[in-house]
Amino acid sequence: MFIVNAILAILTILLVLLSVVNSARNGFYDIIPGLIAGVLVFISMPLVMVFAFGEIPPSFLSIDTLTLHEDNGIYFFIFLFVSLILLVNVLTKKVNFTLKPIIDKSINDKCTDIFAFLVIGLYFFITVIIVLSTNKISGGHWNEASQDMYENSLVSVVLGNFSNVYRVIYPMILALLRVDCKISKKTYSILLLLYLVIELVFVNNRIVVLFAVMSLAYVNKKRLVRFSLACMIISPFVAFINYAYPIARGLMWINGFSIQGISDAFSLAIAYRMNERSNGEGSFFAEIFNNLFEAFNMNVFKYVYNTFGYIHDFYYGKTVLLRSFSFFIPSSIWPGKPAGIGVNLGNMITGENILTLNSTPLGEFYGNFGWYSLIFAPALFFIIWLISRPLLGVKSMSFCLFMISFAALRFDFSFIMISIFTLYVTTLMTLAIYLFRYPSLR
């Protein structure tokens, strides 16, 4: 099976790469191309790691690792799943289907600006409220503080979900404003740096670094070679800090907020990782790449593939569909509300409820539908593409859709549905503000 698995993995990697290159060349940004770009980073790159290191390192998880010696059809499932998503991408470009946009073309220039500044303002406003509401500034674990808040407050759940969407699209909104000369280079730099500080220090979300890099890449698209060289120079440092960050964020809030506490947390985390390297514990470079692309999520997918339908029952849409439409209800009001599949997997694998494990869309859909995922996944992504069409009256919306589907590879399916709902609400708010500013159009 080694040769068959290797061929299927190579075909998967090449097909995804060709699709991403084609979309980039044609400047095609939308919800399905974003999904495929996410597949490149969070599925294809881990497959490259399997070739480079023989397996995806287990990291902190005591589960079987993904290798090329699997004999259960897992690579065939990966190949078919990804190929069908690529087919959906082709179909969406061929289908001549339009829905009337919420924002008419005659007013989309002004509304696009209103939408952008509304997103920026709401991001800062909601994020500050959430950080203060978690009370972790007084001390505690960064993740447990957030979970306690979301379990008991309807308002917190809604604001938290909106904030998750805004943090994903915020960097690209900034990039579009900068490219269109709506904000200065200095303003762009300050707002992007402030975003990174808030997310890395107060929210403790490291994926935002990748979003910021994507924003910078778009701003520097005319100087892409120079930008790429700069990224290559600093990438070893960034990769190592990314490797140490999961340890640091678990320590920085233990005794409440303080600059010294944050400094000590990073010092301890870096020292711990350096000690691992000097003691030869595992492959240092494999672990670096493992954290960089969160490749261990593919090990979690292997766990799902091997156990669901045998040891664990399939969810039959509970975490894909039911959770998507009940996101605003806190578990204190609905005790039987389906938890995300990541929460369930964390409990299954570690026996604890404090860890969320991502298994990529491969694992989430397989855990719900098994091999029938090959029908449900492309159908659902096509439906999502359809219902997102009325949003395109805002010029920057295609970039927003690209970012949320890209991020969904790191989160879960319900994030896409929540994001589309959030974008609809924000678009309607944009239209209301426009009509308020121009009362003659009421």
UniProtKB/TrEMBL annotation:
Keywords: Membrane, Transmembrane, Transmembrane helix. The chain crosses the membrane at residues 6-24, 31-53, 73-92, 113-134, 154-177, 189-218, 224-245, 369-387, 415-436. Signal peptide: none annotated. The keyword Lyase does not apply. The keyword Transmembrane helix applies. Coiled coil: none annotated. This is Oligosaccharide repeat unit polymerase.
